[in-house]
Automatic annotation (TrEMBL):
It comes from the Bacteria. Residues 3-159 form the DJ-1/PfpI domain. SUPFAM superfamilies: Class I glutamine amidotransferase-like (SSF52317). InterPro entries: Class_I_gatase-like, DJ-1/PfpI, INH-QAR. Signal peptide: none annotated. This is DJ-1/PfpI domain-containing protein.
Amino acid sequence: MHVAVLLYPGCIFFEIALAAETLAGRCTLSYYTPDGEPHRASNGATLVPAGDLSALKSAALQAVLVPGGDPRSLMLPVPRASEALRAQAATGALVAGICAGNLVMAGAGLLVGRRGTHNYTAEHAPPAKVAATRHFWDGMQFVRADLVQDGRLITAQPWAYRQYAAAVARTLGVLDEREARDLETYVTRRSCGDGPGPAEA
């Protein structure tokens, strides 16, 4: 199984880090950048891509993960990643966006006539950003939710990175339902909470 991560200047690796970590030991994980050049990630690591957007378009993939961040390098002056994402979606690959990754998907026209979510709303974004991105959501059925899956498309809010990782892994058959639920709920199940403090020596 081969999964791609679409990286771009200004993207936030943290949002897809858990998904990448979950998938890495169970499938081939490759990175792609707009120009095929090495990517300096938001965590300071340098990631060597397998190719550029043209290579992403033609790769035999089961999924493409699209992180959030500042997608202007992919969206301006025209949505540069559109052909690659549309080509992968047409083959049946899962396309999964989180935060601004949803905007990249919308720019590719993948969300027209589909259910999805995003955080470019008055609740979560300044008025100027809401206005500037409004046309991208034309034709999408907005769902106010942390994560929405419509067939082979996933859109997720930035804080839903655990649900995102679990949904991707579940859809690809990498985790079974119990394992996926464990991944989603790990923090609530494994927190110290208000229990006793450190044991005294």
